[in-house]
Write a structure and sequence with these properties.
This is Retrovirus-related Pol polyprotein from transposon TNT 1-100. It contains 5 helices and 2 strands, in the order ββααααα. It is mostly helical. The protein has one domain. The chain has a two-stranded antiparallel ribbon. Helix 4 packs parallel to helix 5.
Length: about 160
């Protein structure tokens, strides 16, 4: 009779992650059981910094930054023959499984208001890039607007 080995579970108590979350061990195959974290918030137009901190904590805990920051994507086909036969490499299949697990989890952390911004994404690094580019531009615009308002407030106070 075969025995099924369960992944090692480590409870985590962290203010940025739901206190009942159980993390699988953070070895290189930590996504085999899937990402089951439920964040306390979903990304919307006003909470990017808070969302980003929570998501980064989970990605760091699972050692998954290599999927979203400068991803090292293995070759899909090991040879021309494999390409013609449509046989993807084992390394690519493992990468794709982990990437799609992270991709699905990232989508689950985004509100319906923000989801259209990542509509055409196919991989986790694409979601990561689009979200960060968009919200960095929003934050820069807001900082510029606040500086402008501050200058005008100072000018009005002098007159």
């Amino acid at each position: 009779m075969a025995t099924i080995q369960q992944p090692e579970q480590t409870p985590i108590r962290n203010a940025t992650v739901d206190a009942t979350t159980i993390l699988p061990s953070t070895n290189k195959d930590s996504t085999k059981s899937g990402l089951t974290h439920s964040l306390t918030i979903k990304l919307d137009e006003k909470n990017f910094l808070l969302w980003s901190q929570q998501v980064n904590d989970v990605i760091t805990a699972h050692k998954l930054h290599r999927f979203v920051v400068n991803p090292d994507i293995p070759l899909q086909f090991a040879s021309v023959t494999d390409r013609l036969d449509g046989k993807t490499s084992d390394e690519y299949q493992r990468w794709l499984f982990k990437d799609q697990t992270l991709f699905t989890w990232l989508l689950s952390t985004i509100s319906n208001i923000v989801l259209p911004r990542v509509l055409n994404c196919k991989h986790s690094h694409e979601i990561w890039d689009k979200i960060h580019k968009y919200f960095n531009s929003v934050l820069k615009s807001r900082a510029h607007q606040l500086r402008f308002e501050l200058k005008n407030t100072k000018k009005l106070a002098r007159s």
